[in-house]
UniProtKB/TrEMBL annotation:
GO terms for molecular function: ATP binding. Transmembrane segments: none annotated. This is ATP-binding cassette domain-containing protein. The keyword Transport applies. It comes from Arthrobacter pullicola.
């Protein structure tokens, strides 16, 4: 379990102060994957540096499985850092070393006996599906295979936490999916706690259990994926179940409807048409599966004469959330 409490990081540039993190809090249960999404400058890299103690936060705490990292003495930082495996955008492998030797490197650095290293490397090669590539050099590997080596290397010292900083930003869509599925499988298999820093909503959609939206150093929305997706007016919901923009249309009110789970497959619109003897004009629609649940989002235009309150009551009784768009 990772708990981040009221983390602040202020940089000084001459007389100017830059508040890179402004009271960030989050809690990620063991065995789950939490996405941190934000635009450039939101504070993602600063958060990574503070979590890995490459940078000391100005205030606030980071706790992993009950042990506070932020009050670890400088002399103990290396040891504390071993509890966190890091995966970066580029695996940055050593070109002159084979796959096996790259994975062995962090274990050599901490003086692990040679025989233990060999056994652990075999285990890790199997874990990331690279048994056949133990003797290959980085130049002989694809981008996805290099990232698999990077993941194996991050897991070498049995960390509790895997911190992935834009792990798929340099990969094509198919390889991205393969790497994300591998991270998800390893999370379940090893009971890891995973934080993924990303600017891609697809990463969040595919593997995250929960998400935080970081903006100007603050978490502006957060929660389990299904919860944020159900909040119709929210920014994360709009990004998770996007609808194309539609030009203004003369006539009746435009509303957005959100249907979750079984409701997403029910004929809500025909029910509405029959009950209110009204026309419903569909402007845009999208269906997504998030954390195993179906979410349907529709933008529709109703007749000008529609009794909106009665429609809202009816839709609410059908388990549909309604937001009047215009
Ligand atoms: N060492 C530093 N000194 C001064 N300001 C800094 C320093 N590092 C980061 N900042 C500032 O802190 C804010 C957050 O930066 P950060 O790099 O954490 O954002 P980011 O979300 O990782 O962006 P990107 O995706 O572009 O890497 C920015 O305003 C940045 O200019």
């Amino acid at each position: 379990m990772i708990t981040v409490t009221d983390l602040r990081k202020v940089y000084r540039q001459g007389t100017r102060e830059v508040v890179a993190l402004d009271g960030v809090s989050m809690s990620v249960p063991k065995g789950s994957i939490h996405g941190i999404i934000g635009h450039s400058g939101a504070g993602k890299s600063t958060l990574v540096r503070c979590l890995t103690l490459l940078d000391r936060p100005s205030s606030g705490t980071v706790t992993i499985d009950g042990r506070e990292l932020t009050n670890v003495k400088d002399s103990e930082i290396r040891l504390a850092r071993r509890r966190i495996g890091m995966v970066f955008q580029h695996a940055n492998l050593m070109d002159s070393r084979t796959t096996a030797a790259n994975i062995a490197h962090p274990l050599e650095l901490v003086g692990t006996p040679k025989r233990d290293i060999e056994a652990r490397v075999q285990e890790l090669l199997a874990l990331v599906g690279l048994d056949q590539f133990a003797d290959a050099y980085p130049a002989q590997l694809s981008g996805g295979q290099k990232q698999r080596v990077g993941i194996a290397r991050a897991l070498a010292a049995h960390p509790d936490v895997l911190l992935c900083d834009e792990p798929t930003s340099a990969l094509d869509p198919r390889t991205t999916d393969e790497i994300l599925d591998l991270i998800s499988e390893l999370t379940n298999r090893l009971g890891l706690t995973v934080l993924i820093i990303t600017h891609e909503m697809n990463v969040v959609k595919r593997i995250c259990d929960s998400v935080s939206l970081l903006e100007a150093g603050r978490v502006v929305e957060h929660g389990p994926l299904q919860e944020v997706a159900s909040h119709l007016g929210g920014r994360l919901a709009k990004a998770l179940i996007p609808l194309p923009p539609t030009p203004p249309v003369p006539g009746g009110p435009v509303v957005e409807l959100l249907m979750v789970g079984d409701h997403a497959t029910e004929p809500v619109l025909s029910g509405l048409t029959r009950r209110f003897n009204t026309d419903v004009n569909v402007l845009a629609g999208s269906v997504e599966t998030l954390a195993g649940q179906r979410f349907g989002r529709l933008r529709v235009q109703l007749d000008a004469s529609t009794d909106m309150e009665a429609v809202k009551d009816y839709l609410a009784s059908q388990g549909v959330t309604v937001e009047v768009a215009a």
